[in-house]
Amino acid sequence: MTVVDICRRSSSLSNQTMDLCFRSFPCLSDPAQRSSSCLKLVLLLTHLIYAGVLFLFDGDLVEKTKKEPWFTALYLLLFVVTLGQYYAISISNPGYVLDVMKNLNKRNVVHTKTSEASNQPASSKNGSIVISIEGSQSEKGVAGSNATYWSKLVSGLYPPGSTIRTWTCTYCNVEQPPRAKHCHDCDKCVLQFDHHCVWLGNCIGQGNHCQFWWYLCEETAVCIWTGFLYISHLTAHITMVWWQDAIMILLLIALSISLIFLLLLLLFHSYLILTNQTTYELVRRRRISYLRGIPERVHPFSEGVCRNIYSFCCSYRFEPIPTPQEIEEKSRQYTCSDVVTCRCC
């Protein structure tokens, strides 16, 4: 037996193991999903390590838990809610254009059929009208008349004179409303596309941007609380065994660096919310057709701080491209009367 034979056997054994793993877990066969799954596992293990080291080395925290269980219960509740929010966002729908188009098409079909049936005599029983739609006919309606309905809806959001080429995706051939973009990682068009998060393995768009912001708040709160517990232990037991202190000090340094990035990310997305922007629009402003030529200090989709927050949290809608008159009005410098009348709100 030569070295080459041993290498061949080991490589074939590893290939068989990988094939068995891919058959057992089909999601891991995709390199992008495999990378995302690994990052999710790393994030979960990181959280568990920080909490485990804390309860393993900090005897005072264990004693305090026995006397005041509500303190640790609140910390663990926030810990679990944060991880739950993370995994919920990772499988959430960011607002895929194709899904929204199909839903609107189906609603329009039902509305059209209902209105037609109400205008025609129909048999009724106990005063209730019975409407039946065959599958083949409903599919024809979705593919035919409702495509025109979606086209009219999208075209009404763009300035007059725009051609269908300007709002049709060149990759999936879907008519995009303003602020939508095709994500190359998901291979789908996303409404109000913000960015594709590699840690989540999912896009951040109109459908889950609010959830993402709350997750950042919760993750920041967990990091601050965990850092406070680490600092409290180190200041109270500075003369303990050196290797225990070294482990907690290294973890605290890594936690501090992560907390800085989290705070910056939270402030950045808060600014985007207040001005009704997305990360993609801010970074690629000069490459986006409907933002080209608009001064950088002007936010064309902003309707004031209060209305921006309300739209972000409570209202999901298609936003038309502002007219030149609206852009000119938003470009106007603020005056004392504008401050008094709360123009920015």
From TrEMBL:
<dbReference type="GO" id="GO:0019706">
    <property type="term" value="F:protein-cysteine S-palmitoyltransferase activity"/>
</dbReference>
<keyword id="KW-0564">Palmitate</keyword>
<dbReference type="GO" id="GO:0005783">
    <property type="term" value="C:endoplasmic reticulum"/>
</dbReference>
<dbReference type="GO" id="GO:0005794">
    <property type="term" value="C:Golgi apparatus"/>
</dbReference>
<feature type="transmembrane region" description="Helical">
    <location>
        <begin position="69"/>
        <end position="89"/>
    </location>
</feature>
<feature type="transmembrane region" description="Helical">
    <location>
        <begin position="249"/>
        <end position="274"/>
    </location>
</feature>
<keyword id="KW-0449">Lipoprotein</keyword>
<feature type="transmembrane region" description="Helical">
    <location>
        <begin position="38"/>
        <end position="57"/>
    </location>
</feature>
<keyword id="KW-0012">Acyltransferase</keyword>
<keyword id="KW-0812">Transmembrane</keyword>
<keyword id="KW-0472">Membrane</keyword>
<feature type="domain" description="Palmitoyltransferase DHHC">
    <location>
        <begin position="168"/>
        <end position="284"/>
    </location>
</feature>
<keyword id="KW-0808">Transferase</keyword>
<dbReference type="GO" id="GO:0006612">
    <property type="term" value="P:protein targeting to membrane"/>
</dbReference>
<keyword id="KW-1133">Transmembrane helix</keyword>
<comment type="similarity">
    <text>Belongs to the DHHC palmitoyltransferase family.</text>
</comment>
<dbReference type="Pfam" id="PF01529">
    <property type="entry name" value="DHHC"/>
</dbReference>
<dbReference type="InterPro" id="IPR039859">
    <property type="entry name" value="PFA4/ZDH16/20/ERF2-like"/>
</dbReference>
<protein>
    <recommendedName>
        <fullName>S-acyltransferase</fullName>
        <ecNumber>2.3.1.225</ecNumber>
    </recommendedName>
</protein>
<dbReference type="InterPro" id="IPR001594">
    <property type="entry name" value="Palmitoyltrfase_DHHC"/>
</dbReference>
